[in-house]
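User: Structure tokens for this complex, please. No commentary.
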Amino acid sequence: MDKLSGKHWVTWADTHAKNSKELTSLNESFKTDVDAFIGALEKAGATVSVNATKRSDRRAYLFHWSWKIALEKCKPSDADLKVGVDIQWDHGNLAKSLAGAKEMVNSFRLAVPPRSNVAPSLTSNHIAGNAVDMTITWSGIIKVQNKRGKEISIPFDNNVNTNSVLHSVGESFGVLKHKSDAPHWSHNGR
Amino acid sequence: MLHIGLTTGDNMKKLLISFMFVSVLVGCSLSEQHASTQQGSNSQSIGWLDKECLAIRNPNFVIGDQFTVVDFSMPQQQFNVEIVSESPDEEQCAPLIDERKVINLDQGFTFYMVDGLPTDFDSGIALLKSDYVISNVNGYQTVDLNGDKKPDFLSQCFSSEGIHFTVNDGAVNGPALWASYYYLAYDLEANCP
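Assistant:
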């Protein structure tokens, strides 16, 4: 395979650096907590749909450096090496290096707003296996047993970020809500 | 409803009662509108874009409907666009790629493709042209969303996995009058306050 950066690395990532939607890919202790929380919600009548669990650090590496190089936030030669990802960011020609990185940014469908300094992150709770993205829905009010066995009534709220009662039940299981990203729960709320 | 032109005492009482009834109705309507706006749910004529893909909580737009799009360059620019197709697929519309689709659809958005944006456009807020007048204030494209005759500012920021689009009351960092979230499904170096 061609080591030089370019669109073919997106195809490579879709095979060798895939993200997971499986709870089994989470860290064991967090998985146990999430299993218990989801079990309690489903027992009470909620529907839980898991969208993302552990994300690939290799994929995050490709996102991060393709974005930084394509937007000229760094030189192609500045990119770190990554074990298991034998990519060559520096084509020996700046225009070709930028073109290769831009192909990847476009094919990964990364956001590139004007004036942005917000690169895809190299580290996160998802990458560490300590976060889950999920939607939780029900009608009306459900009665959920928290980890201590206490029954808690939770009204449905279209905005999950403001449903503090649901957050408190999750917290009892060690699954903490991130307050601004709707589907995101983790071991520490970040 | 107001019975204009009635002059007898009884009719004056009816007029007063009718006026009070209308006042209460208007008051309730405004407070409900304000409340729903604060929650970001009163957004049927405001949406956001990723490239030429418009996400908006309104399934009733048709081809030819026109919007003004504001971007986040500085100075901010506005573009006139119109809907050119409905029900785009994930090739056309990045919010609908596999890992983003479920969460973005779950928020109740309908997706449309628009025409009229420059090729380097990345993201922005779209306002239905017939509903909103856009004014330039010191390089910012503003709209009077809450009818208080003061400019409200359009902005975006990044949280850990997505973009928050907001219309802010009276200042760039004012309280959000309208807010919407685009789930990107990858981790970001967040910059939201």
